[in-house]
Fold EccD-like transmembrane domain-containing protein.
Amino acid sequence: MIAVSITVVDDRGRGRVLDATVSGTVPVTELLPHLVDAAPGEHWQLSGPAGVLRPEHGLDEAGVRPGERLTLARATVPAPPTDTVGLLSGDLPTNPSVWVASFLAAAATLVLPPFSPGAPLWHPLEISDRARGVLDGTGDPAGTAALLCAVLTLVLAVAAAAASLHGKRYTALAALLAFSAGVQVNVLTGCVLAACAVWRPGPERVVTVVLAVAAALNFWPGLTVLVGMTGLVIAGQTALGLAGVPLPRIPATGLFAATDRLRKQDARSAGERAADSTDSTDARNAAVDRARQVHAALVIACCTVIGAGVVQLIPPGSAPGWVTVAACLTVAVTGLSARGCRPVHAVAVTVTAVIVAVWTLVHCASPWPAVALLPVILPAVKVTSPLAGRVIDILETVAFAVAVPLFIATTGVFDLVRGIG
């Protein structure tokens, strides 16, 4: 007979201790029913300091000595090794297919009849024949089906705006549908409706408001491009102001005088400042996140304004003059500012510059359209020299300075002044 201490471990890892004196010749298999009530299909293992005891051996044969501590636990079947194919069966990410389909359907209303009004009216004071016919009571010249499609698009935009209060993914969808409904009148109406369809703060509101303001000022496309370029230059400072990020005080300049609030904060005790350190850090991090989102939205909006202005200056199939071509190519040169920027800024500015350059060159006489293929070699161009970077910065500055008079010339102001004399 051998006196042992057996700890019975359950599924939760808790154990109960049994002190027993058992025969050393009885196999472990015959001892288990006296220790636990095993359910059908369960397999229990008795283990000691030397490892798991074989079920057909007795305690003497297994080398168990009197007074040893044994553990009785349910045996677990090890998982089979995962083969290479099994590694492909991981957790599935969120499926965005329904959102992609909905945005494609909303975007189709901009180009497919009977939803599409055709060529958009860019001038803020011009309205389409369809809108004029509805306003004067003569009816929509495009037919009842087109009018019903426009009304349905507007209703869906309102529904998506209401749904955006519960899910932010609906925000961009609501803005796109509202723009599609408003562009039936003109571009300004579409931008205003898109801004009104954004019912929650975020990048979508910044983009739509900027586009609405630009559309309202779009009396001369050249000036619209200049507005977009200027907005792109000051996007960083504007984002800091809109996000409420305070600029560092520089006493030597005299521009950042200490306010009463800052004086009170400096006068508080160290203990009070330590108590508010966590809240202050969270507030700063939130302000930084807002600034980055607002900056990305401003960059995208300004690039959109620039692209829209260039399309107005060079309509599809037209033959632009040398002043317009030079002005648009200076826009492409200012895209060099994408070096060393954040991904959203870099991608938006680079794509806009390439599109403007390609759009301008393909409307020029031969052989200039062949030059439009030059952006293909951009991945092979790497600027590592500080001197080359400085030259590029100077070139960008000169291009912006040259763009101002060139785009003003596209408005006809200079011809008007010369005609006065």
